[in-house]
Design goal:
The complex is a heterodimer of chains A (473) and B (281). With 473 residues, chain A is α/β, with parallel strands linked by helices. Chain A folds into three domains: 115 residues, Fumarate Reductase Iron-sulfur Protein, Chain B, domain 2, CATH 1.10.1060; 165 residues, FAD/NAD(P)-binding domain; 153 residues, 3-Layer(bba) Sandwich (FAD/NAD(P)-binding domain). Chain A is built from 16 helices and 16 strands. In chain A, the strands form four sheets. In chain A, strands 3-2-1-4-16 form a five-stranded parallel sheet, with helices on both faces. Chain A has a five-stranded parallel sheet with strand order 6-14-7-8-9. The longest helix of chain A is centred in the C-terminal third of the chain and has 24 residues. The relative contact order of chain A is 0.12. Chain B has two domains: 89 residues, Translation factors (Elongation Factor Tu (Ef-tu), domain 3, Beta Barrel), CATH 2.40.30; 110 residues, Rossmann fold (3-Layer(aba) Sandwich). Chain B has ten helices and 17 strands. In chain B, the strands form four sheets. Chain B has a seven-stranded mixed sheet. A five-stranded antiparallel sheet of chain B has the order 5-6-2-1-7. In chain B, β3 and β4 form a beta hairpin. The two termini of chain B are 27 Å apart. Classes of the chains: A alpha/beta (473), B alpha/beta (281). The interface between A and B is large, with 40 and 42 residues. The structure holds flavin-adenine dinucleotide (2 copies), iron/sulfur cluster (SF4) (2 copies) and FE2/S2 (inorganic) cluster. One iron/sulfur cluster binds next to α6 and α7 of chain A.
């Protein structure tokens, strides 16, 4: 018999330590954060659950390979400082990812504990570690090597661009980020609402980049103000991370009526332009008593919950498939339900009806699910003769986005795929043009924060290697 | 940040000329394009057309009519002040080519952006005529500038205090009847551009208009500026602002422009209450 003395057999705790949350009846009226974060006690309790696997599958599920068991062990040992350092080594935006990563499809999906029980709440622990020192504003600036003298331009300041900038700056390259809007952060700033991701966190994490010497030029639309050719004259390499961005409309009668928004416009007005503070802030947004959001993804849920907070009495999600097919995160769906959002499944809008130029009713038709197609998604079709009307004041279209061609139109030599996204070599992010790399939503179509960050990291590594090769030659 | 190098009142009481320091933009901007500005942290983003582009001195000029909160706040800024955000050039430039005779039609402050356009058409070897209208002679702007670049300047006033009495469309009708007009390009209030398009339609003369829907980002990201052109949805900030006037759904545009009237009124009233003293100065 082997001695089991020193090998403490881990005690299995089947369920996640619950996350304290703002009460639904209260939070539906404010823009403050919904999830409040673990206390030290809760974090210790959750860290205790990790089995410290020798071959941690969770890490493979994370697009940037955060050293999960190691940082959880550090929390368990009470060394939170070490935990955050371990995470930050791989992930520039832990406070962001701990909040908005779809962990159930990534790290937590692979967690060994999750095979039989609930997985370890890796995201919540990551958030705990990131929030520990206050905010990223207090994070120490990493030490930088001496400058390589190589200059890299980054177009777009979303998570892909920010991560690429961080990695390249850490390697001693001179980095300049160009951003079209007046604020850096991409979707983190204009898309994801305050109650899920406070803007202070984004601002602080971006301030860290500035402290590292990264220059961020806002109000700079590349392709208009500066062409890609001109950038390539001034810089040794360029990383394109312009996101997906362009909203789609269903193409149905009445979609131009007043009171109808794309989710992008509705969210940009509220988040970036702070219309929820109107008239304190100058940008207005139409707030209706009855708001219908068309779509079933995260963007639809963010929109409906914003509408609720802006005073909607009846906020509805209209989705053409059933709940099981909804692409949104389960946690978000639960949160929305608790706040009183209504879900209508298997219905599709066919027409918008207005009077005096304003939308008043939305005509829908019932849908039914059919067989699965090759992609494994169930087909869905209309049930003839089932039209009915719902009275509405505001309708928000959250039907997905297409590639933003603003830059690409003016730089014809970059190969695009059929849908207008940039074609890259997956392992390096290289595009068809030498010294131009790309990553994030402009390559994959609308994806996730952390996959965009992963792409930024891959490209940074390749840019660094390619530059070193070049310097040797 | 963009510094106001020069500011002056060019038409009583509310139309101002601004010359801004913008080295990069001035190098790239072309006639027909616009910029978006945001005055301060709480400000909204508003689009403004380029009234002049001067790459040698690195400046651009804007002509802005104070109609609401943001434009009034802007009118109170002084030479030397800085505008927090200036973004551009945005939109597609005017397609400048040699066609023969070009008639430009402008009303109100809308004549200003026609200035660089007139210049460019002239340089391309066209015969350039401008028809500019105003309610009365005191409201005319940019007359001298146009006299310098255009072959002919036709002025109309509603009250007959200068030039021809009547609307720009009446003068346009006469030009079209004379024949030989190859292209009409119009900038101004939507209603005027609609009437211009209706006037040229029977003559089958190509008519370009510069649409001014409400915008937010100006980069194609929000879809707020969508307009209906020949039944299809287009984004004015990236596909436009210029479109074929005979294809525009004008009712749709004018309806969408009214979207925030109540919000705008409220915000302007509140602001005026806070700033009564300043306005009286
Ligand atoms: C409402 C909403 C909610 C979401 N929720 C989640 C979530 O909970 N979890 C999650 O993982 N993902 C979520 N996503 C998806 C995620 O935000 C994106 O996949 C991610 O932000 C993509 O990053 P990116 O860096 O490729 O591009 P973006 O974040 O889109 O940033 C691109 C930036 O480039 C700028 N740009 C574009 N063109 C130019 C140009 N020509 N010149 C200069 N700058 C330019 C844009 O202004 C923008 O700032 C959400 C998306 C939305 C819209
Ligand atoms: C492409 C384009 C070029 C323009 N060029 C000029 C110009 O050269 N000179 C000039 O004086 N004005 C120009 N305008 C109009 C100018 O943007 C509006 O006058 C300005 O936004 C009004 O803001 P406000 O707060 O002062 O008034 P508000 O009280 O907010 O609005 C007054 C009216 O202006 C329009 N408006 C409001 N916000 C916007 C917005 N974000 N985008 C577009 N229109 C809006 C609405 O129709 C509104 O009824 C242009 C508009 C567009 C779209
Ligand atoms: S970054 Fe996202 S996927 Fe990676 S460990 Fe953290 S929460 Fe999981
Ligand atoms: S798989 Fe789960 S239990 Fe194993 S190390 Fe990762 S988080 Fe811990
Ligand atoms: S202003 Fe947002 S898409 Fe044109």
């Amino acid at each position: 018999m082997k001695t089991e003395k020193n090998k403490k057999k881990p005690k299995i705790i089947p369920r996640k330590t619950p996350m304290p949350e703002q009460d639904p009846s209260q939070r539906k009226d404010n823009f403050e954060e919904v999830a409040l974060g673990y206390s030290l006690e809760m974090a210790l309790q959750e860290a205790e659950r990790c089995l410290q696997c020798k071959d941690p599958k969770c890490v493979d599920g994370c697009p940037v390979n955060v050293p999960i068991p190691q940082f959880i062990k550090a929390i368990h040992d009470g060394d939170i400082q070490k935990a955050i350092e371990l995470i930050q080594d791989k992930n520039l935006l832990p406070a962001v990812c701990g909040r908005v990563c779809p962990q159930e499809d990534q790290c937590e999906k692979n967690c060994l504990l999750g095979k039989k029980h609930e997985p370890v709440s890796i995201g919540r622990l990551e958030r705990f570690a990131a929030d520990w020192q206050g905010t990223a504003c207090q994070l120490t600036t990493p030490e930088l090597p001496s400058s390589t003298g190589k200059r890299v331009a980054i177009v777009g300041s979303g998570p892909a661009g920010l991560t690429c900038a961080y990695d390249l700056a850490k390697l001693g390259h001179e980095v300049t980020i160009y951003e079209a809007l007046h604020e850096a952060g991409g979707v983190l700033f204009y898309g994801i609402p305050e109650f899920r991701l406070p803007k202070d966190i984004v601002t602080c994490e971006i301030a860290l980049l500035r402290r590292m010497g990264v220059e961020i030029v806002t109000n700079a639309v590349i392709g208009k103000l500066i062409s890609l050719d001109e950038l390539m004259q001034d810089f040794d390499a360029c990383f394109i991370a312009t996101g997906a961005g362009v909203p789609t409309f269903p193409g149905i009668e009445g979609e131009h009526l007043n009171g109808i928004y794309s989710a992008n416009e509705f969210l940009t007005r509220t988040n970036l332009m702070r219309a929820y503070n109107s008239p304190e802030f100058d940008t207005p947004v139409i707030t209706g008593k009855r708001v219908a959001v068309i779509g079933g993804g995260n963007v639809a849920l963010d929109s409906v919950r914003v509408a609720l907070r802006l005073g909607a009495e009846k906020a509805m999600i209209l989705y053409r498939r059933s709940e099981t097919e909804m692409p949104a995160r389960e946690e978000e769906i639960d949160h929305a339900r608790q706040e009183g959002v209504r879900f209508e499944f298997l219905i599709n809008p066919v027409r918008l009806i207005g009077s005096n130029g304003w939308v008043e009713k939305i005509e829908c038709i019932r849908m039914e699910l059919g067989e699965c197609d090759e992609s494994g998604r169930k087909s869905v079709c209309e049930i003839a003769g089932t039209q009915f009307q719902i009275p509405v004041d505001v309708v928000i279209m959250a039907l997905g986005t297409e590639a933003n061609q603003l830059l690409l139109k003016s730089s014809g030599d970059i190969a695009l795929n059929k849908r207008g996204y940039i074609v890259i070599d997956e392992a390096t992010g290289r595009t068809s043009r030498k010294w131009v790399y790309a990553g994030g939503d402009i390559v994959t179509g609308s994806a996730t924060v952390i996959s965009a960050m992963g792409a930024g990291r891959t490209a940074a590594k390749a840019i660094h290697n390619d530059l070193l090769e070049f310097m040797k030659e | 940040m963009a510094k106001i190098l020069e500011k002056r009142l060019i038409r009583e009481p509310d139309v101002f000329y601004y010359r801004l320091e913008a080295p990069l933009i001035s190098r790239k901007a072309k006639p027909g394009q616009f910029v978006i500005i945001r005055l301060h942290e709480n400000g909204e983003r508003i689009p403004l057309s380029l009234a002049d582009i001067n790459p040698e001195e690195g400046t651009i000029s804007l002509i802005v009519m104070a109609v609401g909160k943001t434009t009034t706040e802007m009118s109170m800024m002084k030479q030397g002040n800085e505008i927090l955000d200036l973004c551009g050039p945005l939109g597609q430039p005017t397609h400048i080519h040699t066609v023969g005779k070009v008639v430009l039609v402008g009303g109100g402050f809308g004549v200003a952006p026609l200035y660089p356009i007139a210049h460019a058409f002239k340089d391309a070897g066209n015969d350039v005529v401008i028809i500019m209208g105003a309610r009365s002679k005191d409201l005319l702007i940019y007359e001298n500038e146009f006299n310098r670049v255009c072959d002919r300047v036709i002025i109309t006033t509603d009250d007959g205090s200068r030039g021809i009495k009547g609307f720009v469309t009446e003068a346009l009708q006469k030009e079209l009847e004379k024949g030989g007009v190859d292209l009409v390009l119009s900038v101004g209030p939507a209603i005027m551009m609609q009437n211009v398009s209706q006037t040229t339609e029977p003559f089958d003369v190509k008519t370009i208009v510069s649409l001014n829907p409400i915008m937010v980002d100006g980069t194609g990201m929000c879809g707020g500026c969508r307009v209906l052109i020949g039944g299809e949805t287009r984004f004015a900030c990236v596909d436009g602002p210029e479109f074929d006037g005979h294809q525009v759904d004008w009712d749709n545009l004018m309806n969408r422009q009214k979207k925030y009237v109540n919000h705008e009124k409220l915000s302007f009233e509140r602001w005026k209450q806070k700033h009564t003293n300043m306005l009286c100065e």
